[in-house]
Design brief:
Length: 140
């Protein structure tokens, strides 16, 4: 998992240690409004943003060039519908946090990989998948 302490110091390193970046500007928004303001500001300046999630990818897909954003403070359950058996989570929620939250509603994920250190947004955007021939990626 991405070290929040390193991120706050402007350093990025993925979990495997093979992708590193020094001197990026860290951001940890706590609201949608903060994200919108941040993105607008960086866009106006012509900057580049990378959302790093948990930095669990072994590839440089999340390597920041300038601005590094973490959704670490935007985690947890937003809504649950017991009738449709659907739940909505913040994108910064770590996969290992999902099961215990859903269990309170007698729900569970149908599909889960063996590594649960990723954030929901990171796992979906990078094609993370579970195991078994009939199970698709988490985004499905």
């Amino acid at each position: 998992m991405l070290s929040i302490k390193k991120m706050r110091q402007g350093r990025f390193e993925n979990w495997a240690g093979n992708v590193k970046k020094e001197g990026c500007t860290p951001h940890e928004p706590q609201t949608i409004e903060e994200i919108c303001t941040f993105v607008s500001h960086v866009y106006e300046k012509g900057g580049m943003i990378r959302s790093v999630g948990a930095a669990h990818s072994f590839s440089p897909v999340a390597k920041p060039e300038q601005h590094l954003v973490s959704l670490h403070h935007m985690r947890g359950l937003l809504d649950v519908d017991a009738v449709t058996q659907q739940a909505t989570f913040w994108g910064g929620t770590y996969l290992h946090e999902v099961g215990p939250i859903l269990a309170r509603y007698n729900l569970a994920l149908e599909n889960m990989g063996d590594i649960a250190e990723q954030t929901i947004a990171g796992a979906i955007s990078t094609g993370t998948h579970g195991t078994g021939l009939k199970l698709t990626s988490l985004s499905n």
